[in-house]
Design brief:
The protein has 16 helices and five strands. The protein is mainly α. It folds into two domains: about 300 residues, Fido-like domain (Fic-like fold); about 70 residues, Arc Repressor Mutant, subunit A (Orthogonal Bundle). The strands form two sheets. The protein has a three-stranded antiparallel sheet. Strands 1-2 form a two-stranded antiparallel sheet. The two termini are about 35 Å apart.
């Protein structure tokens, strides 16, 4: 950690920490303790304010596009899939969309440890989205989310589901704390107070635009690093929760992780640079560009999904097929993978009826069989898969 630069930071201070790696292996170094976020922010350039305005407008367009969909779930689930996969990838847990979608197929056992962990994030995020409909963001909520995200991990972590009481550092795996890229706040009362102050700040009324506040809060959370693990995933989830609470979006249809994942090193560098310089402009601009680009990608994705559904529905009407096949088609737009058995169970129909529906959808090219087997076959709506992976 560059103590010389961080010691001059106008938005925090370095403080001494000491501890041990094991029974007799002790360490002593410095950690960075971020100052509370300001109620107002000074020094933003006109270019940065223009980006804040553009990001706010982009979010507004995305929100309107979502409201224009027949069913917002058509975009909510694809967005959440993409966020779950890429926010986990940023932390070194990699999975494929196809494998994630199989988690809801009848009789499927999740064999991949990576997919179990990603699915745990998926469920934690869904619970958090539901929670912020009626509850403000709180330390208790964030602790619950962190516990749920780590529920399927096999790694032994300390202080799971609570603000950490131990020291952590950011750097290459196995790297000693003295050589770390960054050492966040010590795991003591100062860290707990810092997180409580951040949560209070998020909940207070403000004249600052929600996009700017989301950028500021994300920096603060990642710099405090309040948990033993899962800080990145929880921190990026908070962005969505803030925008929901501020009514900037009515549904959780924004995702920043894919954009950050493509610029992983720059993402880390921008957060560290802000701690060193106190200049909010580069980080806020970086964050706003993520919102702008991802909003546009999601708008285009929503349009493609909507067009796919309309064209597919038209084809089914031309064949004069009626009944549950229309429900199956609509659900494919948000969960584009199924089996005959999962279809029979979900719609409470016979295996014969489910087989007929799946065969019809294969006949018109909506579904494609992926296993090549004569039993236990799995079918996907490949066009929807392609759209989701491009978001």
């Amino acid at each position: 950690m560059d103590n010389d630069l961080l010691s001059k930071s106008p938005i925090g201070q370095i403080v001494p920490v000491q501890g041990d790696y094991g029974l007799h292996d002790k360490f002593a170094c410095w950690a960075f303790l971020a100052a509370p976020l300001p109620e107002d922010i000074e020094g933003l350039t006109s270019q940065t304010w223009a980006l804040i305005s553009a990001a706010s407008t982009a979010l507004g367009r995305l929100d309107q596009e979502t409201k224009g969909l027949e069913d917002p779930q058509l975009l909510i689930y694809p967005t959440l899939f993409r966020e779950a996969l890429t926010t986990s990838a940023l932390e070194g847990t990699y999975g494929q969309l196809s494998d994630l979608l199989e988690t809801r197929l009848s009789g499927n056992q999740i064999e991949s440890q990576e997919i179990r962990e990603i699915y745990a994030y998926l469920e934690a995020a869904r619970g958090a989205f539901k929670s912020v409909e009626t509850r403000p963001i709180s330390v208790a909520m964030l602790c619950d989310v962190q516990r749920e995200i780590l529920a399927q991990t096999k790694k032994p972590f300390r202080d799971v589901g609570e603000v950490r009481k131990h020291h952590v550092w950011i750097g290459d795996e196995g790297q000693p704390i003295g050589e770390a890229r960054f050492v966040p706040a010590p795991g003591d009362d100062r860290l707990k107070a810092g997180l409580e102050e951040l949560v209070d700040w998020i909940g207070r009324e403000s004249v600052l635009p929600p996009v700017l506040r989301a950028a500021m809060a994300h920096y603060q959370f990642e710099t405090l690093h309040p948990f033993g693990d899962g800080n990145g995933r929880v921190g990026r989830l908070i962005v969505i929760l803030q925008l929901l609470r501020s009514k900037s979006i009515a549904e959780p249809v924004i995702t920043v992780s894919p954009w950050f994942n493509e610029r992983k090193q720059q993402y880390k560098d921008q957060l560290l640079a802000l701690s060193c310089t106190g200049d909010w402009n580069p980080w806020v601009a970086f964050f706003c560009n993520a919102i702008i680009d991802q909003s546009q990608a999601l708008i285009e994705g929503a349009e493609h999904i909507d067009n796919w559904l309309k064209e597919s529905t038209k084809t089914i009407h031309q064949r004069r097929w009626t009944g549950i096949i229309h429900d199956v088609l609509k659900d494919l737009a948000s969960w584009p993978k199924l089996t005959v058995t999962s279809t029979a169970e979900k719609y409470e129909i016979t295996q014969v009826s489910a087989t007929s529906i799946v065969n019809h959808l294969c006949d018109i090219g909506i579904l494609t069989e992926t296993t090549g087997r004569s039993y236990g076959r799995v079918f996907v709506a490949q066009e929807i898969m392609d759209i989701v992976e491009a978001i």
